[in-house]
Design a protein that fits this description.
284 residues; alpha/beta; 10 helices; binds zinc ion; Polysaccharide deacetylase family protein; NODB_dom; Polysacc_deacetylase_ArnD
Length: 284
């Protein structure tokens, strides 16, 4: 299996500092100004969820990290996020025994009591419905949408096949429907574009789903990494108060993430950080 094929599975290749075909939001900003003060009723199961919904016809807002409010510093919080990647065409590979899940990582997060946000593809939830339900009913976690197919929402995104613009919204909705079907109860209205790749067209296409696009400011480098220490060092060097870290929950493409997390968590706590879900990071 060549690296080019494997590269289709993960959000960011080794050494990537960000998506190749997007313009990430300036840190902490919600880039759709019209959206900021438009409350939308929460969905069942998330009564306290604060929403930033797009204006009609406008782009989905984008969140990348927490920033300071006037007169106060950013709290010493950090959000670890884990992309549960599986693409729509990887079923045969899973059938041959390739593991796109990472139950050891989830166990570690539970043991270490690290609130986390899991960005799950619909295809992953179909392949691992019991794990999706377990994550999706655990108050330690929140489950966010990472598309159904894990195909690209812009051209030139790590070699991923591209979703037609007319199919983008349906791809997001299909993942949400799978989550409901398998019993995910802690779904939050956040969407991470596969590879993080997005443009204005893509933000407008997914906006009717009522989602906020969630990027990151710290790339863990766990995709295809073989050295857990190097991943941990990269995260520890990059985290600042309010940071949002992207990692992966798929052994196939990120085999050392659990080991890295076991190093990262105690060290960040020693430095005074508190781990929060994206929803809390967004609340500031
Ligand atoms: Zn991904």
């Amino acid at each position: 299996m060549g690296a080019g094929v494997i590269a289709l599975t993960a959000c960011a290749p080794p050494g990537a500092t960000g998506p190749s075909a997007s313009s990430p939001a300036s840190p902490g900003s919600l880039t759709s100004p019209a959206s900021r003060d438009t409350p939308v009723p929460p969905r069942p199961g998330n009564p306290k969820e604060r929403r930033h919904a797009p204006a009609a016809g406008g782009p989905a807002p984008v969140f990348s990290r927490a920033t300071a409010r006037p007169g106060s510093a950013v709290p010493r919080t950090v959000a670890l996020t884990f992309d549960a990647d599986m693409t729509a065409d990887q079923g045969p590979r899973a059938a041959r025994g390739e593991r796109f899940d990472n139950p050891g990582l989830i166990d570690a997060l539970r043991t270490l009591k690290v609130p986390s946000t899991v960005f799950m593809t619909g295809r992953w939830a179909e392949e691992y419905p019991a794990q999706a339900r377990s994550i999706g009913t655990d108050p330690l976690f929140e489950t966010a949408n990472h598309s159904y197919s894990h195909h690209a929402f812009t051209p030139g995104c790590y070699g991923l096949p591209v979703v037609d613009r007319t199919r983008m919204l349906a791809d997001v909705e299909r993942a949400r429907q799978v989550f409901e079907r398998v019993g995910v109860r802690n779904a939050v209205p956040y969407f991470r574009f596969p590879g993080g790749c997005h443009d204005d067209d893509a933000l407008r296409a997914v906006a009717p789903a009522g989602v906020t696009a969630v990027q990151w400011d710290v790339v863990s480098g766990d995709a295809f990494a073989t050295d857990a220490g190097a991943v941990a060092e990269q995260v520890l060097a990059g985290v600042e108060p309010g940071s949002l870290v992207v990692m992966h929950c798929t052994r196939s493409a990120a085999p050392v993430t659990e080991q890295a997390v076991r190093r990262i968590v105690p060290e960040l706590r020693r430095r005074g950080y508190r781990f929060v879900k994206v929803s809390e990071l967004m609340r500031g």
